[in-house]
Amino acid sequence: MEVGPLGELFKMKFACVELLTKSGGIWRPTPERPNYLCDQRREIDVNSFGCWASALEGEHIPLSWFVTGKKGRPARQKATLFERGVHKAKKILFKENLSYRNLEYVKQFDVVLVCHHESAHWEMLHFLKKAKAISPTTLFLATYGAYQLGRVRELWRNPRWYRSFMEFIETSDLFLIVNRAAQDYFQLVTHKPIVYFPPFYPYDYTRRFFRQREDKEKTIFVAGNTERVDILAGLLRARDFQRRHPEYLIKLTDWGKMNLEPLRRCRYEILSRIPWQKYLEETSRALFILNTDIWWTNGRVPLDAAAVGTPCIGCNANGQKECFPDLVCADIEGTAKALELAERLLNDAPFYEATQKKALSQLEGYSYENSRKRFETLVTEIREGKFSEKRGSFETVLEMSVS
Q1: How many C-beta atoms surround the C-beta of residue 270 within 10 A?
Q2: CA nearest to 113, candidates 223, 224, 10, 200
Q3: How would residue 193 be classed by pLDDT, with cut points 50, 70 and 90?
């Protein structure tokens, strides 16, 4: 089990604060129930920042705990019309100020990671300011949450949102990003160091789902919701591949309202939303995965693909570029390359196996153990005042542990 004590030389109390949690309350890991063995709809994320709290034996806390001291609305439940009205009224009446009943709870932590929220940016900024004031010895790291860099770029067009986001970065002690491509982009607007810190991934658990090439089935998997840009390109390329190789079945997950017109007259199967472990088993059987989402995501799809030994053909997701660099297509104009890559994966066994090996090696660098070591190094450098003196020092540690 990967959730274990931190090294003897470095111990900390860690918390991750987000606007909402899956349970509505505080989640804490146990050795028997790390995040990846919990219900991902009602308890904690399999990926994202649930991994941080699990690997660091910390707490995943909703903002409501500090505001009311009580359990709040679970993330899976949409806010009611009344709740949205109250939220809007508070912004007007209190001029974007919150009152807290339980803010002193933050004092017990050595390190707190505060996650920005796209639709509640002022709440998270206000919390970060107040928490820093009441607990000056705590190290407050910040990140822009689980939404994509592509979404941030859209929201930046709103001057008020932009100012709030920049203030959020400046208020933190250090700003972390989970997509390497975002580093230079965010550094344009701040002198505060922007640190690329890839997500914690339960590598030691997922490697049991790895499947060799000779054990693959005649299926291909198309990832993503067709409401996202540009998943339809993946469907079209899957259609083209099936026309060449009609024995291969196309599979994709049912995301609700989907545009399946590109698959008209194709042979395909729609899978229901299944638990993560079942998803790993399903995708491990596929010859390859198509993931043509061009929104600069963190890249959970290619990370899971690396774990199960299924090459992923994709675009600019972070996990894609790091685990499957030889299978990257350049945005929408480059998706013709996807079909060429698919043919090579089908016909070139040494290339296929080398791709599997490279991806799994990269993924090991994201394991809980390696991520804990990186995090310890980062926090130690900040505490000792070394990080600000040599910004590149942490990046060197990162490259060493991932390579």
Answers
A1: 13
A2: 200
A3: confident
For the stretch 163-183, pLDDT in tens is 999 999 999 999 999 889 888
Q: Distance between alpha carbon 120 and the CA centroid of its chain, in Å?
A: 19
Backbone angles phi, psi at 130, to 5 degrees: -70, -40
User: Residue 95 — very low, low, confident or very high, per pLDDT cuts 50/70/90?
Assistant: low
- The answer to whether residue 400 scores a pLDDT higher than 50 is no
Q: According to the 3-state scheme, what is the secondary structure of the chain? A: CCCCCCCCCCCCCEEEEECCCCCCCCECCECCECHHHCCCCCCCCCCCCHHHHHHCCCEEEEHHHHHCCCCCCCCCCCCCHHHHHHHHHHHHHCCCCCCCCCHHHHHHCCEEEEECCCCCHHHHHHHHHHHHHHCCCCEEEEECCCCCHHHHHHHCCCHHHHHHHHHHHHHCCEEEECCCCHHHHHHCCCCCCEEECCCCECHHHHHHHCCCHHHCCCEEEECCCCCCCCHHHHHHHHHHHHHHCCCCEEEEECCCCCCCHHHCCCCEEEECCCCHHHHHHHHHCCCCEEECCCCCCCCHHHHHHHHHCCCEEECCCHHHHHHCHHHECCCHHHCHHHHHHHHHHHHCHHHHHHHHHHHHHHHHCCEHHHHHHHHHHHHHHHHCCCCCCCCHHHHHHHHHHHC
85 pLDDT tier (thresholds 50, 70, 90): low
